[in-house]
Amino acid sequence: MIPSPSTYPSDDRADLLAATGGSVTTVPVVEIGAILGSGREAVILHKGERYRLRVTANDKLILTK
Questions:
Q1: Which of the chain's termini has less CB crowding within 10 Å, N or C?
Q2: Rounded distance, CA 3 to CA 37, Å?
Q3: Cα dist from 46 to 20, 30, 32, 51, whole Å
Q4: How far apart are CA 38 and CA 24, in angstroms?
Q5: What confidence tens digit (pLDDT) does each residue in 13-60 have?
């Protein structure tokens, strides 16, 4: 379940506002578990190209082609 924008911490909301020119509703928010499931990596297809999204040992996200 995705929380409403009013439940996000203020710093996250500010980042979303800055990134979208002031409209939070235009930015989809997806929990990483919805993408990765119980694993640590997923393949994302974009315009016929494969990208790998993975969680590092330090719990950071890396997207590579």
A1: N
A2: 19
A3: 21, 17, 18, 8
A4: 28
A5: 666 666 666 655 678 899 999 999 999 999 999 999 999 999 999 999
Identify the three-state secondary structure at position 56: coil
User: Is 24:13 a contact under the CB 8 Å cutoff?
Assistant: yes
What are 51's two structure tokens? 């990208």
User: Measured in Å, how far apart are the chain's first and last C-alpha atoms?
Assistant: 29
DSSP for 19-43, please give it. Answer: HHTS-GGGS----HHHHHTTSSEEE
| Bridge partners, residue 64, by sequence | 52
Extract the tokens encoding 48. Answer: 């016929």
